[in-house]
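Lecture 7 notes: from sequence to structure.

We start with a single chain of 318 residues. Read the sequence below before looking at the structure.
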Amino acid sequence: MEKGYSHSRTREHRLKRNKRRLMLIAIVLFVAGCITFIAIKVSDSKPHAPTQELAKKTDSVSKDSSKVKASAGANDKAASPKNDPGVEDGAFVEKYLNQQMLGKMPDGADGKKVAYLSFDDGPSVTVTPQILDILKKQKVKATFFIVGKEANENEHTRNLIKRIVKEGHAIGNHTYSHNYKYLYPNRRVNTDHVMQEIEKNNQVLKSILGPEFSTRMIRFPGGHMTWNRRDPQGMAALDKVLLQKDYHQVDWNVLTKDAEGRSKKAPALINQFMRSVKGREKAIILMHDTYGKEETAKALPQIIEYLKKQGYEFKVMK
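Now the structure, written as tokens:
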């Protein structure tokens, strides 16, 4: 009996001792937790120097980025055709012609007479210099739809491209080869072939004028209206690609017929032009500066004088 009682007291004493140890451990852990919490709060209230420096750099980068964006926006605005009174946005001309060809009143009809002189199929070393000399003398600008193969023919033709740009004229893309059989096999619009030719011509122009050169203006050999009638589905597919790439195709609503039928003398070209331009508020005029078009150069001064007397202003298309 005495032995059992002694064993019971020993066990009770051991349990009390264990409880005291557990309480002591709990107190120590609580105190340690409080100290850690206080240390963290103090640290958060005073950022370390590296953190402050990083914040400053981030803020600086953010401000610089904003300045770059603002500057880029200003440059884009300055380069926009809308801010140059002598330049017409190609998208405007494209829409104007499309609506006019559908028999609708164009959205851009505002009573102001504007003439857009355009020359296709060049450059040529025989006719293009004459055209440029006349335009310079008349103080008029024009848009040249360039064939890449002709532009890259030799040093003289490459220099003509440079002169066109230097004298303030605009350049459009008239494909690289102007080869109907490749562009429109079996009299059908081949989107892949046309886009290959457009991009190839772009590369030629960049090689001459520098990598920063670009043009949004496209004119199809034979004209968009012609191939839209012959192959509406094919042209619709091509139009979709052009839209995605921000290209704008432009045809014409005035012509001298210097590339239709038999060769014509300057007086016949002028008469045809006057019949064609009658009633046109926005006159997109088609002529050619390729080889054999010397009569076009002869007719050009009278065409320009007529337009001036009729109250037209002159713009290029970009």
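Residues 65 and 71 are 10 Å apart (CA to CA). Keep this in mind for problem set 3.
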